[in-house]
Amino acid sequence: MDTVSPTSLLCRLDAIPDGGASAIEDVAAAGGESVIVARRGDQVRAWLNICPHAGRRLDYAPGMFLLKGELLICAVHGASFDRNDGVCVAGPCRGEHLHALPVELRGDEIWLRARDAAG
């Protein structure tokens, strides 16, 4: 499933607290989905805000995530995902992955990159 089309600006780096995560809503380049953006310093990662277990959002309130060390925890069923690679390390979908999205930092802005034909 390749949901990424043209490059689009997600947000400014300082909109995501260092060590935190937030949701960017209705991202057209991600099929209109909510996107999780996680930050550690100037390193950013992004995933669709959809738990592979039940297809529900991971946040407990819009844009608010349960974070514990290197884990991003689904608020619905407690699936715990490694913030480095999106792999579920505990819970009902152990071994599955969040759908990663390619992002890059351009100055102080976080951009969703277009995928090439090879994906």
Please describe the topology of this protein.
Layout: E1 8-12, E2 21-27, E3 33-40, E4 43-48, E5 66-68, E6 71-73, E7 80-82, E8 88-90, E9 100-101, E10 103-106, E11 109-112
Antiparallel strand pairs: 1-11, 2-3, 3-4, 4-9, 5-6, 6-7, 7-8, 10-11
Keywords:
119 residues; mainly beta; Rieske Iron-sulfur Protein; 4-stranded antiparallel sheet; disordered N terminus
Give an overview in words.
This protein has 119 residues and is mostly beta strands. Strand 10 and strand 11 (109-112) form a beta hairpin. The protein has no helices and 11 strands.
Strand order of the largest sheet: 2-3-4-9
Give the C-alpha Rg: 13 Å
Query: What's the CATH C level of one domain?
Result: Mainly Beta
Shape: globular
What profile does the largest beta sheet have?
Answer: 4 strands, antiparallel
Task: Indicate the structural class.
Answer: mainly beta
Q: What is the number of strand segments?
A: 11
- Uncertain stretches of 5 or more adjacent residues: 1-5
Strand-residue proportion = 35-45%
CATH architecture call of one domain? 3-layer Sandwich
The CATH homologous superfamily of one domain is termed Rieske [2Fe-2S] iron-sulphur domain
